[in-house]
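Q: Hi! First time doing this. I have a protein sequence and I read that you can turn it into a structure. Is that right? Here it is:
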Amino acid sequence: MNRTEFRARIRTSLANPTLQLALDANAERRVNGRIRAWESLPNWRERRQQAHAIRAEVIEHLEEYLAPFINKAKENGIMVHRAKDAAEAIQTILKITESSFPGRLDKIDANHQTPLLVAKSKSMVTEEVNLNHALEAEGIRVVETDLGEYIVQLRGERPAHIITPAVHLRRDDVGRLFHEKLGIPYTEDIPTLTNTARKVLRDVFLNADIGISGVNFGVAETGTLCVVSNEGNARMVTTLPPLHIALMGMERLVRNLDDLAIMLSLLPRSATGQKLSVYTQLVHSPFPGQQRHLILLDNGRSRLRNSPLKESLYCIRCGSCLNACPVFREIGGHAYHSTYSGPIGSVISAGFFGSDFVPLAQASSLCGACKDACPVDIDLPKLLTRVRAGQSETKKGASEEGDGLSSLSKIFLRMYSWIARNPRLFAVSQRLAGLGTRLISPFSNYVRLPAFTGWGYSKDLPGFAVKPFRASFRVDIGSGSNQSIKERKVEFNPSSTSESNQDKLKQFEDELLKVSGNIIHTHEDEVTNRVADFLQERGVNQIHLEPNTLDELILEQKGITVSHAPDPALRVGVTKAVCGLADTGSILIRDGEGYPLQASLLTEIHVAILRASEILPSLQDALPLTRKSKSAVFITGPSRTGDIEMSHTIGVHGPGEVHVFLVR
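A: Yes, that's right. Below is the predicted 3D structure, encoded as structure tokens:
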């Protein structure tokens, strides 16, 4: 990549009115949603600093935490592999596939055997290694199952955003795409478009030979893989196929479940404005008859960890810095021409992929909005200036001071550095600059930049002040209003009614309703009858039921047939909830007899039986309950998506309804 190509893409983005509308809508909703979500966490500032310290500790002693994580994961039955780069990661996946499906990788099959089918959930690491292209070159069919990823795959594009891959598209773009590729009548109705994708991808989930996912966090203490999603596709990919392969950047570790709770209180709030993602999945072991593999990818992370850009490895991939960045909000993700875009992408792209990506760091105003938005308080402006100064390794493993700057910029900065070190000369230069502004542009406070600067076609430079700062700034020492900045305090005023003081039951109910769930109060001796009445009102006479949850004799008497095995044709799944979370309205479902994870995933309607005595204050209190399960999931309302024009749509790959029968 060179600066000329980058500027050409910037011009193209700025001239695209559809893209500008899409980016404006995304930024406004995401930023406002993040602010509201953070305000719901009274101690978010303290948590943010805790998260920064956790990430710093892990990155500083990364190998010391990787060793127990790998050992514990192996004890749990997960096969762990390490890959030094993208090529090794791809070869590892192909070897796993060949050993699991001998002979199925032949590109030309004389017996016309159906090619291997991969159901893939959203993962930036797989984008980083260009996995889809590599697998398709071997005759393997790869289908992206996240709605946004599926849309951009059909268009032959890369994701335009870490969280919202199709952020650059409008509903009419998706309508035309589905009409051309899927053969449906043209429509701009977002629920119809979403339901179309659900129907197509349901067959992929049910018939996939391999599921491939990313990993949001690995827990060193327990060997756990944590995967968060909203649509339900990540659960499908990790649960249904006989072979699951997870790719994880080697830096994505936390020390223990307490650390994980802190990260999960910040990640969804920063990414999508939610208190907790719809599905927070904790994977410990493979299911019976399933193989589970984990590939830990380096691909430049070790090199980055030993560079001045080390802090960029603290990133938890929430995308909030992209939404806050005024440059990203104008040019979008594709202009960066890298897997990772925006402020964090400008840093790690240079660190991972070499000096070709150094020019990306010039696409920043250094306003600090990215640092303010970061949930782990990464000092992105500092890192961006380091990239600009050439403090990232080049392809040859060496770096040159100022490698990220143009020749003109280097000359200007050398002159500025020389002038700024001389106070008198600096004062004279300020006066001359102010005079020059008045001469060049007497009727405007802005000066048009020359085109060769890279911004002259679209940006104006604010004129220099007519008077130097010192001449304009006068302090009245006797005034009582001259409180120093150091003395000023910003107070956080939480709601007058603290959530921690509310009744847990009432708080749980309120939060569940906020996430589009439903609650039905009942008593121990009437719960089966109440559920039966609910089913009969819906015209349901056959359900997937977790054993020892309801009185099956009563259900049979009421004409309701019970199945304890997964059946995609069933509309309703009934499970026990291990506990509820008062502060998010979530419920915890663990694997066990009767396949409760499938009952809560494959059906259109999920009914959960929860005892009122099992409602806990928060995620941190409930995480220890997941230790002894092969897999567990915290469910926060029905599945949902916002991948088409940020339109909130209920019911994607998982259930569209969640009903909690609260038993007193």
